[in-house]
Inverse folding.
C-alpha cells in the first residue's frame, strides 16, 4: 500500500518545511518536494494543513479500578477518542495488586488492551509492593527486570493515597536503585500522602464534605515537599526520575532547582493544570466541583502562567492528560456528602492537542514546534519509542496527523468521543483540529469519521530510558 500526502506543511519538533510525504506500508518512505504521484494507492491533499507526528499521551488510565469503581473508558473507547484528537500512541498504567505479582498485572493489562485498542499502546507498571512479605520472593526486584524485558520500561510509584497505592520511602528507594541498574525510568506521583491524610480527616470531622475540600486539603507545599524528596531519593540512587502531573509552581521550582544542578529530573504537566484553576472550581455550584476532583487538585490561577513558562524553558518537558474519566451521574456521585469518596480523575484524552494548539500556539505561549515536541517527540524519547514514534522521518512509523489550523469547533460532552457524560472544557472554543489521522499508514480518522478497527492497535515493547539525553 502506497500513500502520498501532498502539499502539506510538515512540522516536527525542530523544523517547518513544505514537503510531500510518501508512506509505504506502515512506514514513512520519503519526504521531499514534488514526489512522483504515479502508482499510488491513495493520494491525500494536505494543502493549507500542517502535517505533524501523531500525538503520544504518556499518561492514561483506561479500564482502571479506582475508588470503588472503574474508569469509564476502556481500551476501545479511550483509544478511539484519542485518535479523534490526533493522538496515535498512549502509554497506560498496569497496577500491581498489593501483595500481587508484577508479571500478573502485566498479563491482566494485556488482556484489557488486546482486541480493543485502536492505536498503539505501551504500558508503565504501577508498583505497590516490594516488601519482603510480598508474593515475589525476590522482593519484586527481579520482577521489575522481567517486565523491563517485556518492554515495560517505566514504573509509577505513589507518595499519595495511603492505604491504597502509597508506598514508603524505602520502597521508592529500592525501585529507583533497581532502575539505576536496569535502565528503566521511575515516574512519581509526588504528594505527601501522610500529611494530606491528616488534613483530610480534620476537614471531614469539621463537616467540610463538599468537592472543593478535596482541593483545599491538598496544599501545594505537600506537592513541593514530595517532589523534593523524590528527587533527593533519585539522586542518592543515581537514577533519573520523572514527576507526573505536576500542578503547582512550588513543585516546579523544586524540579527547576534540581535540573540547574544537573540532576536527571523531568516532569510533565496536564492541560487541566495549565487551563483550569481553583477559582474556577470555587465558582462551580452544588456538587459540580466533583467534575474536577483529581489529584493533585486544581491550583490558584497564578500558577498557570508559571507552568507555561516551565514548558517554554524546558523545566517541564511533556504534557500528558492523566485521562481517568468517571461519569458525573453514576460515578462521581459516589462522593456526594463525602469528597473523599469521589473517584479521582478527569477526562481529557481527546482534547490535549486541541487545547494546547489553541491556548499554546494560537495564543503565542509556545511555538508550533514546541507544541509537537511536548505532545509527541519528547514523550517518544522519554519513554523509549523514538524514532519509531514521535517524529516524521524516513523509517519511522507512519503515525501522523493532518492538522487543520483553521478548523473551528466547540468542546462539548454532546460531541466528544470519550465515554463520559461531561467535559471539563464544556463550551470552550478551539481553532485547530485533527482532520485526518493515520496510524502505521492506515487512515483511522477522516473528517470526523472513524475508520479504524478495535484490536488493530499493537502493544509497544519500549526501549529503556536513553540516559541523560537532554
Ligand atoms: O486523580 C487522578 N490523577 N487520578 C488518576 C490516578 C493518578 O493519580 O494518576
Ligand atoms: Zn498520579
Ligand atoms: Zn494518573
Amino acid at each position: 500500500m502506497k500513500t502520498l500526502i501532498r502539499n502539506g506543511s510538515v512540522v516536527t519538533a525542530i523544523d517547518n518545511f513544505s514537503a510531500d510525504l510518501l508512506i509505504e506500508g506502515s512506514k514513512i518512505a520519503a519526504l521531499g518536494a514534488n514526489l512522483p504521484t504515479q502508482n499510488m494507492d491513495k493520494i491525500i491533499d494536505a494543502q493549507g494543513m500542517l502535517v505533524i507526528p501523531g500525538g503520544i499521551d504518556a499518561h492514561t488510565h483506561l479500564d482502571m479500578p479506582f475508588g470503588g469503581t472503574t474508569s469509564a473508558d476502556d481500551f476501545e473507547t479511550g483509544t478511539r477518542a484519542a485518535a479523534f484528537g490526533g493522538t496515535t500512541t498512549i502509554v497506560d498504567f498496569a497496577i500491581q495488586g498489593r501483595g500481587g505479582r508484577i508479571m500478573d498485572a502485566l498479563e491482566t493489562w494485556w488482556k484489557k488492551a488486546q482486541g480493543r485498542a485502536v492505536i498503539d499502546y505501551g504500558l508503565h507498571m504501577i508498583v505497590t509492593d516490594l516488601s519482603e512479605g510480598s508474593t515475589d520472593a525476590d522482593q519484586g526486584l527481579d520482577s521489575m527486570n522481567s517486565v523491563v524485558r517485556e518492554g515495560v520500561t517505566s514504573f509509577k510509584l505513589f507518595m499519595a493515597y495511603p492505604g491504597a497505592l502509597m508506598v514508603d520511602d524505602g520502597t521508592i528507594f529500592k525501585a529507583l536503585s533497581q532502575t539505576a541498574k536496569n535502565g528503566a525510568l521511575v515516574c512519581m506521583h509526588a504528594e505527601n500522602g501522610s500529611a494530606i491524610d491528616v488534613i483530610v480527616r480534620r476537614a471531614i470531622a469539621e463537616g467540610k464534605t463538599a468537592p472543593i475540600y478535596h482541593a483545599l486539603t491538598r496544599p501545594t507545599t505537600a506537592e513541593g515537599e514530595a517532589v523534593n524528596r523524590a528527587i533527593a531519593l533519585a539522586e542518592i540512587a543515581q537514577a533519573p526520575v520523572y514527576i507526573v502531573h505536576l500542578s503547582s509552581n512550588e513543585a516546579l521550582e523544586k524540579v527547576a532547582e534540581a535540573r540547574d544542578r544537573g540532576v536527571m529530573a523531568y516532569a510533565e504537566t496536564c492541560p487541566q493544570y495549565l487551563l483550569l484553576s481553583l477559582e474556577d472550581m470555587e465558582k462551580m455550584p452544588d456538587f459540580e466541583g466533583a467534575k474536577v476532583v483529581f489529584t493533585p487538585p486544581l491550583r490558584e490561577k497564578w500558577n498557570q502562567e508559571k507552568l507555561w513558562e516551565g514548558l517554554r524553558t524546558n523545566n517541564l518537558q511533556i504534557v500528558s492528560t492523566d485521562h481517568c474519566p468517571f461519569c458525573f451521574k453514576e460515578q462521581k456521585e459516589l462522593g456526594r456528602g463525602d469528597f473523599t469518596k469521589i473517584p479521582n480523575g478527569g477526562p481529557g484524552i481527546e482534547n490535549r492537542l486541541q487545547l494546547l494548539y489553541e491556548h499554546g500556539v494560537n495564543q503565542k505561549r509556545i511555538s508550533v514546534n514546541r507544541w509537537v515536541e511536548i505532545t509527541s517527540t519528547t514523550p517518544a524519547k522519554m519513554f523509549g519509542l523514538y524514532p519509531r514514534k514521535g517524529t516524521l522521518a524516513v523509517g519511522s512509523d507512519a503515525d501522523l496527523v493532518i492538522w487543520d489550523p483553521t478548523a473551528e469547533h466547540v468542546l462539548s460532552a454532546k460531541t466528544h468521543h470519550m465515554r463520559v457524560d461531561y467535559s471539563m472544557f464544556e463550551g470552550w472554543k478551539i481553532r485547530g483540529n485533527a482532520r485526518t489521522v493515520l496510524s502505521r499508514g492506515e487512515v483511522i480518522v477522516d473528517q470526523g469519521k472513524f475508520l479504524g478497527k478495535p484490536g488493530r492497535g499493537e502493544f509497544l515493547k519500549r526501549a529503556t530510558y536513553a540516559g541523560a539525553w537532554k
Notes: The chain is about 30% helix and 25% strand.
